[in-house]
Amino acid sequence: MADLRKKRVITAALCGSWPTRDMNPAVPYTPEEIAEEAYRCWKAGAAIVHIHVREPDGTPSIRYELYEETIQRIRAHKDCDVCLNITSSGTVDGVDEDRIDPIRRLLPELASYDAGTLNWQNRTIFENHPRFLEKLGHALQEVNVKPEIEVFDAGMIYNTIYYMKTGVLKAPCHYQFVLGCAGGMTSTVENLVHLKSILPEGSTWAACGISSGHLPIMMATIAMGGHLRVGLEDNLYLDRGVLAKSNVDLVERAVKLLKLNNLEPATPDEAREIYGLTRKVF
User: Fold this and answer.
1) pTM for this one?
2) pLDDT above 70 for 282
3) At what angle do helices 189-197 and 214-224 cross, to 10 degrees?
């Protein structure tokens, strides 16, 4: 049996809502493109794929049909057992039920749970009203989908501690630190250490740094025993001035860094064990 202490989970965040092909032509838009990137990232070593969807012109979307087609295309690869993580935040102004509905109907192993409201990119409000967070927490428990708690600043962790006390969330939780977004905490190792220090006991955690914070946060996360998120949602570059040609480039680099530290990427089933996920069978 594998020693899970030597394993680290890699999540590939494939397109997000923000990056466009004007920024990097490799950003996938269509369900076919997103599903193919998911499959290739799994083959490269990602245990989880984080799914957003886009309209044909690249506009962020929460349209159920796009999620459904994307997930069906991923699951059509019968050799692929990658864990699925569907966002609840495809747009910053979506209707509560429209944000929850794809998760409830498509039953991924994980779904994002953005644990507070943010001044997103200093341009708009990324609203996660307490009303929505309560609905989402209860909905995820009803369909046995684990929340991936997205943390952009320290107060969001304290929000989740409150929700665990009130039954909206069920411990132990899994946290995803996202550092470097304008409006949230900057991507410094000091901030990463602080966030880890205030996690509830028994939590699992992963981290990513946005853009230029990508590599420093990834290397600090490896050193601190955390798990990794990579992908074009967070970082469009492979090197200074060199665009990544696909999400696979970023997964492969994460695998290489793990191996340099005598670690291994977790398989999807190992990720399910580490994070406490229920495997969905279709």
Assistant:
1) 0.97
2) no
3) 40
